[in-house]
Amino acid sequence: MKNYRDLFEGLDIEVPLLDGSKARYINFDNAASTPAIKASQDALNDFLNFYSSVHRGTGYKSQLSTHAYEEARAVIFDFVGANPETHNVIFLKNTTEALNKMANRFPFTDQRDVVLTSAMEHHSNDLPWRRATKTVHIKLMKDGRLDLADFEEKLDKYADRLALISITGGSNVTGFINPYYDIAEQAHAVGAQICVDCAQLSPHRSIDMLELDDPRHLDYVSISGHKLYSPFGSGALVGRRDTFEQGEPDMVGGGVVEIVTLDDVQWAEPPDKDEAGSPNHVGAIAFAASVKKLKSIGYDNIAAHEAELTAHAISKLKEIPSIVIYGDDDPDNTANRLGVIPFSIEGINHFKVAAILGHEFGIGVRTGCFCAHPLILHLLQYGEEKAEELRLEMVAGNNGNKPGLIRMSFGIYNILEEVDIFIDAIIKITAGEYKGEYIQDISSGEFHPKGWKPEFEKFFSIEKYG
Prior knowledge:
The model has no long low-confidence stretch (mean pLDDT 97). This protein has 466 residues and is an alpha/beta fold. Helix 9 (299-317) runs parallel beside helix 13 (416-430) and helix 10 (350-361) crosses helix 13. The chain is built from 13 helices and 19 strands. It folds into two domains: 5-30 and 298-461, Aspartate Aminotransferase, domain 1, CATH 3.90.1150; 40-295, Aspartate Aminotransferase, domain 2 (3-Layer(aba) Sandwich).
């Protein structure tokens, strides 16, 4: 196994434990956010010496800043295999903002007004569509995979009205990778377009949007820097230029116009038309440096590294009798999925497990529903009656029975030694070998050790900069 840890800083930071000792922090919450890779930090620090406003500035630093910002845009074009003549790169905060912009700007018509998405989506690729137009959900198989028979049935049913299929490239819960090129071909065959949420896919697999004359091409993709080892507030929506040439921008103000009079507005050409205000060009430059580094590492190497970690973790978890793994639990199939493992421990609340891992072992995981509530309810096999009962409890402010799973997820810097430490911690938890008394906060559902208070200011505080 290759070791990519020297590409990062901060991996040896120690954090305080409940017993007063410290441990080197282990992060298995990469599906939520990844740490900054050195290349991204270095690009940010080097550029800040020349930081200035972009677009229309006449000073040297302003011109350099504009050049660097547009260079970053070119890097993202290359990263997703998009053609600048037919597509646009719009810089935004993250995939959530990108998909909201898509929902606001897509040219739905009275004849083409249906979006087909799935029940496995992150809320960011579901709720914006619900607000915008009629949204239909593809059903899932029992293990959380896309039900392709149901997809074909719904595709046939709504073919004449279908405007767009918006599907995740890879699930942030199960790690399943969808056959998005096949889906794209079927979408185009009925006159629809496709949008692929690549937030979870892009750190682990290469993306190629293909040319528009290829029947398998992708019309739109969205990516987030904070999942691509560049947590500096930048993401991108890459989409068809002809779409964004139409209509009015969903956010207006400076930067989106050619000329304004008291009676009229002439909008700018894409992508400026959809980048209102002063952009986060520092974040975009750091983001571009990060994806350049990932491409130089090679996605085959990244996938192989994470598949080995995932296979090792699944094999070890399956040896623990009280562990239930959801989705694909085959360690021999990890090359065909992402490094995300959702599981539960029978008889122990998922929030409590995460609290013990953090406070007594210095291990960070994610717990809960991962912004994919319908998928979690499906995996847990909650029927409509039980789901409604829980919903009413939560609306009333009681989250004590909030459903959820524990999720461990890998980045390129994780190593087998960390997986083994994690497995040892899980074995101890299942055996009741932990020290703290954990109290649940009913309003959030989370557990905290009794009598423990965090002393964050010992590690970081903005006060020192005043």
